[in-house]
TrEMBL record:
<keyword id="KW-0472">Membrane</keyword>
<keyword id="KW-1003">Cell membrane</keyword>
<keyword id="KW-0067">ATP-binding</keyword>
<dbReference type="InterPro" id="IPR017871">
    <property type="entry name" value="ABC_transporter-like_CS"/>
</dbReference>
<dbReference type="GO" id="GO:0005524">
    <property type="term" value="F:ATP binding"/>
</dbReference>
<feature type="domain" description="ABC transporter">
    <location>
        <begin position="255"/>
        <end position="499"/>
    </location>
</feature>
<keyword id="KW-1278">Translocase</keyword>
<dbReference type="GO" id="GO:0005886">
    <property type="term" value="C:plasma membrane"/>
</dbReference>
<keyword id="KW-0677">Repeat</keyword>
<protein>
    <submittedName>
        <fullName>Heme ABC transporter ATP-binding protein</fullName>
    </submittedName>
</protein>
<dbReference type="GO" id="GO:0016887">
    <property type="term" value="F:ATP hydrolysis activity"/>
</dbReference>
<keyword id="KW-0813">Transport</keyword>
<dbReference type="Pfam" id="PF00005">
    <property type="entry name" value="ABC_tran"/>
</dbReference>
<keyword id="KW-0547">Nucleotide-binding</keyword>
<dbReference type="InterPro" id="IPR050107">
    <property type="entry name" value="ABC_carbohydrate_import_ATPase"/>
</dbReference>
<dbReference type="InterPro" id="IPR003439">
    <property type="entry name" value="ABC_transporter-like_ATP-bd"/>
</dbReference>
<dbReference type="InterPro" id="IPR003593">
    <property type="entry name" value="AAA+_ATPase"/>
</dbReference>
């Protein structure tokens, strides 16, 4: 089935999210839509799926114009969508989830789940999904839940499948499995629109690539194009994607977490007996699929978790039980994972945001009165040093792009001498050009002798920055491995094997592969 978008424009008031976009997806093709977060990719797909009505333009399926008043119209036209955040009911079975919205009602209003189970098994067998129709969704790994979403679309006879950032919550092994599934679907005639900002994955699976920037199509590329070429299209300028980082020169081990356990308010164990340490002059990256205890770990260090036991020490001083202010005053710099809610006060100026943790101290205030001249001078210097793109330091922080907001947070946290620097999801929603800058500043802080902890669900970022990598799964530490460890090893640990088990598993796989290669 062929899909064509002609001149699609979508406006939200004065904001033009999509600006006269033209796109053609041929039958049996994987067409990747590549762009930064906020470029307009998801908005465009929501228009295609009937969730938004376009301001102007038209959609054609097999050269016939169609109009969608909702997702049911899109599905009826043969278009299915797997959202970045799954649309599943956890307490329902796979069959019950698949039947929702496509109910086959028998007399008396009872769901015909037998027919649904049969269809699930047929699709699962055809593509090797290995999905049990009677399994509860909440008991399934994330990668299998994604397969359920794909089955939902295929049960509805979708010939065009939209995958919106589908690898965001997957381990490397689950990502590879998804790529295999996409290849099978394409070979079976399904057209796929693959939405992503990850250059490596787009190059690996695409037949063709369209790049979107600030709501406009800025070019097309072949998968053979280099990552440098693709990044330049995404950003609009040349970008150096290679971080020139020297080997770490670790000093004294000054930060230690010992037997840390964190409980939720209702008694659920969120972090289970975690122990780790960081030395001066090294970067420890915390890896894992989102939701496996990373947030709870950083919040415990910051003093934001009430139900935490164990020990957290910095320079021999116990931090557990301290207030957030006491932790920050002890020399901890912190970049939160949600800059808009936790890192900035959007309505305040850039200048004011740059002193949120320093405003009570000289020279920014004296006897309770802010020194506006010093604050203004500081803002001009930091805006220049961190390349914050703004008309004026007096602009409100919420007028900045995501990358520039992150630069403001980083500039504030690195404005004072630190004994520990923590950055959680430091480049989430940040353009490629800003990532380049932020990574260099993080490494510079390490080279200045500060212990650094990076929490990231982006495995490329972890491998780029880390001197050592700690992997969390279900709140437990699977082990700490060198920064140059393989994706395969990290993926197994992210799926629940400890470091020793993962290494043994890889040895077994290598031996089996070697044996299979023998004549």
């Amino acid at each position: 089935m062929k899909l064509e978008l002609r001149g699609i424009t979508k406006s939200f008031g004065a904001l033009v999210a999509n600006d006269h976009i033209d796109l053609v997806v041929e039958s049996g093709q994987i067409h990747s839509l590549l762009g930064e977060n906020g470029a307009g990719k998801s908005t465009l797909m929501n228009v295609l799926y009937g969730l938004y009505e376009p301001t102007s333009g038209e959609i054609l399926v097999d050269d016939k114009a169609v109009k969608f008043s909702g997702p049911s119209d899109a599905m009826a036209a043969g278009i299915g969508m797997v959202h970045q955040h799954f649309m599943l009911v956890p307490v329902f079975t796979v069959a019950e989830n698949v039947a929702l919205g496509a109910e086959a009602i028998s007399f008396g209003g009872v769901l015909n789940l037998d027919a649904t189970r049969k269809k699930i098994r047929e699709i699962s067998d055809k593509f090797g999904f290995d999905v049990d129709p009677d399994a509860l969704v909440e008991d399934l790994p994330v990668g299998v839940q994604q397969r359920v979403e794909i089955i939902k679309a295929l049960v509805r006879n979708s010939k065009i499948l939209i995958l919106d950032e589908p690898t965001a919550v997957l381990t490397p092994q689950e990502t590879d499995e998804l790529m295999d599934i996409m290849g099978q679907l394409r070979d079976g005639g399904t057209s796929i629109v693959f939405i992503s900002h990850k250059l490596r994955e787009v190059k690996a699976i695409s037949d063709t690539i369209t790049v979107i920037r600030r709501g406009k199509v800025v070019g097309s590329a072949d998968p053979s194009a280099s990552t440098t070429e693709l990044a330049a299209l995404m950003v609009g300028r040349a970008v150096n994607l290679n971080l020139n980082k020297s080997d770490a020169q670790p000093g004294e081990e000054t930060f230690k977490v010992t037997d840390l356990t964190v409980m939720s308010d209702d008694g659920v164990r969120l972090l289970d007996n975690v122990s780790l340490s960081v030395s001066q002059g090294e970067i420890l990256a915390i890896a894992g699929v989102q939701g496996n205890g990373q947030t709870e770990l950083t919040e415990a260090v910051l003093g934001l978790r009430k139900h935490a036991v164990g020990s957290i020490t910095l320079d021999g001083k116990e931090l557990l039980g301290s207030s957030v202010r006491q932790v920050l005053d002890s020399g901890v710099g912190f970049v939160p994972e949600d800059r808009q809610d936790d890192g900035l006060v959007g309505e305040m100026s850039i200048a004011e945001n740059l002193i949120l943790d320093l405003y009570k101290k000289a020279p920014y205030s004296r006897r309770g009165t802010l020194n506006r001249a010093v604050i203004a001078k500081n803002s001009v210097e930091k805006v220049a040093e961190f390349d914050v793109r703004a008309q004026s330091p007096q602009d409100a922080a919420n007028t900045l792009s995501g990358g520039n907001q992150q630069k403001v947070v980083l500039a504030r946290e690195l404005a004072r001498p630190l004994k520990l620097f923590i950055a959680s999801q430091p480049t989430r929603g940040v353009d490629v050009g800003s990532i380049e800058f932020l990574h260099k500043r993080i490494v510079a802080e390490r080279d200045a002798g500060t212990p650094v902890i990076i929490v990231s669900t982006e495995l490329d970022e972890v491998l780029e920055l880390a001197d050592r990598i700690a992997v969390l799964f279900a709140g437990r530490l699977m082990g700490i491995v060198p920064g140059k460890s393989s994706r395969a090893l990290l993926g197994l640990m992210m799926a629940g094997l400890n470091a020793e088990e993962a290494q043994e598993h890889m040895k077994t796989q290598d031996a089996q592969n070697a044996q299979g290669d023998q004549p």
